[in-house]
Amino acid sequence: MPLHGVTRLGYVHARVTDLSEAKGHYGNTMGLYPVHETADRVYYKGWDEFDHHSVVLEAGGVGLVKLGFKVTDPSDIEGIEKAAQAFGAVTERMSAGENLEVSDGLRIVSPSDHVIEIYHGMTMRGTEVGTHNPEVFPRHLVGVGAPRIDHALITAEDVKTMDRFFHEVLGFYATERVVTSLDADADYIGTWMTAGNTVHDIAVIGGPNGKLHHFAFQLTDWSEIKKAGDFFAMDDVSVDIGPTQHGITRGETIYFFDPSGNRNEVFSGGYVAYPDRPTVNWTPEQLGKGIFYIQRELNERFTTVLT
Ligand SMILES: [Fe+2]
Question: What is d(CA 29, CA 258) in angstroms, rounded to the nearest whole number?
């Protein structure tokens, strides 16, 4: 059982330089459902997500505004608040409605200066196929037709402290790490962590504090990854790398950029995680193979372009 009841990454709130270009990308190419729009924000959900939204795009700049993680019960918030304060993190309570259609909860500034919101409720919007004798997918999906968001990768100056923060405060466990050695005092170059049974909900790699490397949409399988690539060709989406295979997580992937330069990923596969599955360790000289299993080397853009 999770320590503090976090179930999953619930929302990614990012900045975009141009809202109408972003709407073309996230709405028309990725096929997310637009659920709400204001003068400077647009809200989306994937077709297989029941809650009101999972992606918020805000006009002005690039990068991450915040990540929302959903807990199962309102009482989980207090435990996380105590754990965050014991860890030395800055916290504040948030009220229902501060985020559209989102309950009250807790805002935490992570040791890497990322804003993390913990909430227990979001207005349920449901899905097109519903829960009563549902079809296996909606008939008229647009473009990639992404079912749901999956995970985010952020950068931090101190990855090991972030690993401890996500474990001690939010109850995550590490499925995979890149470590300088197998000794207890090793430094971490990267950590892939989950709160449930997906192979990762969050990953952290070494880099400047407060930055976004990418956020990812889950697709069903390799053939859907390839088909997403076809839509990227049709829509002239800037592709970073792929389709290819990850060693770390065993996922299948394409990395690409939204029109503002925020990196996205389509991700499929990966294994089922569970808390007593031993953490997989990679050594730095195998990092290229860990990230891009087939190519076995990182491109420079992958390690340097952050938003
Ligand atoms: Fe990823």
Answer: 10
d(CA 209, CA 156): 4
For residues 255 and 243, what is the distance between their CA atoms, to the nearest angstrom? 8
75 C-alpha to ligand 1 centroid (Å): 31
**pLDDT exceeds 70 at position 161:** yes
Backbone angles phi, psi at 98, to 5 degrees: -60, -35
Q: What is the Å distance from ligand 1's center to 255 Cα?
A: 8
DSSP three-state, residue 135: coil
- Residue 291 alpha carbon to ligand 1 centre in Å: 9
**CB within 8 Å of 147: residues ≥ 6 apart:** 46, 47, 48, 49, 137, 217, 218, 219, 220
Find the radius of gyration of the CA atoms of the chain: 18
Q: What is the pLDDT of residues 81-109, one digit of tens each?
A: 999 999 999 999 999 999 999 999 999 99
**In this structure, what token pair is assigned to residue 291?**
């990230």
151 burial type by CB count under 10 A (0-12 exposed, 13-18 middle, 19+ buried): buried
The alpha carbon of 186 and the centre of ligand 1 are apart by a number of angstroms equal to 24
Residue bearing tokens 């504040």? 92
Which DSSP string corresponds to 147-163? -EEEEEEEEES-HHHHH
> Cβ atoms within 10 A of the Cβ of 184, count?
5
Residue 300 tokens read as 């420079």
Helix (H) or strand (E) holding 260: none
Residue numbers annotated as active site? 151, 200, 214, 246, 255, 265
**CA of residue 151 to ligand 1 center, whole Å:** 6
At residue 300, the pLDDT reads 86
